[in-house]
Amino acid sequence: MCGLHSEKCEFAKNPEKAEARLHINSFLMGGLLTVLALIFTFSPDKFNIMLVSQLALAIPLILFASLSYAKMGYERSHKIWDRFGWITNNLGYLLFLNAAGLILADFSFRILTMIYFALLIVLIFAYYILNILSQPGTLKEHLGKLIFWLIGIFIGGILPAI
User: Fold this and answer.
1) What is the DSSP string of 52-85?
2) Geometric angle at alpha carbon 99, from 95 and 101, rounded to 5°
3) Is the Cα dihedral 80, 132, 25, 156 positive or negative?
4) Where are the domains positioned within the chain?
5) Are 28 and 96 in contact (CB under 8 A)?
6) What is the pLDDT of residues 3-13, one digit of tens each?
7) Sequence-separated (6 or more) residues with CB below 8 Å from residue 142
8) Measured between alpha carbons, how far is 91 from 62 in angstroms, rounded to an integer?
């Protein structure tokens, strides 16, 4: 998997994976723009500023992650695009996932909000445990990524939802 500390990038040997990431990001961008437009239609002052901010900031992050993944398809030296793409993509996804939880919190679904964030944390743990088990020797890298996600969810999602 392409990552912050990867020496090689699977996208270089699996262009279909890069293309799939671009499609996912394109779909997500459309959804983000739609939700943001709806919020501004219904009056943004009715929504948590953290929610609106995270939705808005996710858009350029995911856009530039997509540009990085596209660039990796034709650049010889793709390591820098791999790192930039991983950082911007994961930050964008993190903001998007936090915003989804904050939408629940803004509509006073407190129990559902906490279940949402708990499920998100359980799934992130499962994802990185599976990565560690399937890729021996990547413990340090995947623990770092796990910590990144947990801190981001706590600061950008759970704390503002409380």
Assistant:
1) HHHHHHHHHHHHHHHHHHHHHTT-S--HHHHHHH
2) 125
3) negative
4) 10-161
5) yes
6) 544 545 555 55
7) 128, 131, 132, 135
8) 8
- Cα 122–chain centre separation: 16
Identify which of 123, 162, 116, 118 has the alpha carbon closest to the alpha carbon of residue 146.
Answer: 123
- Cα–Cα distance between 18 and 21 in angstroms, integer? 5
CA–CA separation, 16 and 87 (whole Å):
20
Q: In sequence order, what DSSP letters do the residues of 78-131 get, joined into one string?
A: -HHHHHHHHHHHHHHHHHHHHHHHHHHHHTT-HHHHHHHHHHHHHHHHHHHHHH
pLDDT tens-digit map of 57-108: 999 999 999 888 888 766 666 778 888 888 999 999 999 999 999 999 988 8
pTM tops 0.85: no
**Roughly how many angstroms between the first and final C-alpha of the chain, as a whole number?**
34
